Amino acid sequence: MVAQLLELAPAGFLEEENAVVVYTDDAGLAELRAQFDQVEVDPVLPGWEDEWRRFHVPVVVGPLWIGPPWLESQPGLTPVVVDPGRAFGTGAHETTRLCLELLLELDQGSFLDVGCGSGVLAIAAAKLGFAPVHALDVDESAVDAARRNAKANGVDLDVKRANATSDSLPQTDVAAANVTLETVEALGPRIEATHLITSGYLVADEPRLTRFHRVERRTGERFAADLFARE
């Protein structure tokens, strides 16, 4: 269910003990009801628009501090400041952390972030010395957020709106795709990269990619990330 919500609620959702909470409008409610058997509706309380800030907490991955603009980074760490806006990606999600752990193991080179969301992975790559860095997303709000965050972090990203399963993709040394399992598998024949980092799916999922073989897997409590090498 959580993997589906990464697509349906890119602005974010809250995981509580017995439910997942999504702030949405009538159109979003219709999409949720089309996907899930049980959807309950409660009116939001005053101040709901700032409630999500409680869950936008900073994380540290290796030398990187990833957090929102209203908090200060820890001394001695490289800050990746992210305001997601309406795009998925705060850095705190398990899939993002796992992808970054794998990225830290790779040599610097050119980088492609497929389904970039707010630009967390692309900005982190640029801060780590990868260049040039390309970031693609099919959602215009994600493209806008990634461009804003790149500017706020003082890094140079080539951010474009594109459908990675049909549009042409740049050839890079490293690519990352923190998307759905279905999209990850569709990218196998299309990605031109020496290494590919994938996530966005559960630990039980095993992506099957043509032209790549898996060299490492990282797992969290619910999600997994894989590092593939080009055959």
Concise summary:
With 231 residues, the protein is α/β, with parallel strands linked by helices. It has 6 helices and 12 strands.
List the helices and strands and how they pair.
Elements: H1 2-8, E1 14-15, E2 20-21, H2 26-35, E3 59-61, E4 64-67, E5 78-81, H3 94-103, E6 111-114, H4 120-127, E7 133-137, H5 140-153, E8 158-161, E9 172-178, H6 181-187, E10 193-202, E11 212-219, E12 223-230
Parallel strand pairs: 4-5, 6-7, 6-9, 7-8, 9-10
Antiparallel strand pairs: 1-2, 3-4, 10-12, 11-12
Helix pairs in contact: 3-4
Model description:
With 231 residues, this protein is of the alpha/beta class. The chain has two domains: 2-50, no CATH class; 85-230, Vaccinia Virus protein VP39 (Rossmann fold, 3-Layer(aba) Sandwich), CATH 3.40.50. Helices cover 24% and strands 26% of the residues. It contains six helices and twelve strands. The strands form three sheets. Strands 8-7-6-9-10-12-11 form a seven-stranded mixed β-sheet, with helices on one face. A three-stranded mixed β-sheet has the order 3-4-5. A two-stranded antiparallel sheet has the order 1-2. Strand 7 (133-137), helix 5 and strand 8 form a beta-alpha-beta unit. Helix 3 packs parallel to helix 4 (120-127). The longest helix is centred in the middle third of the chain and has 14 residues, at 140-153. The chain is globular. The mean pLDDT is 86.
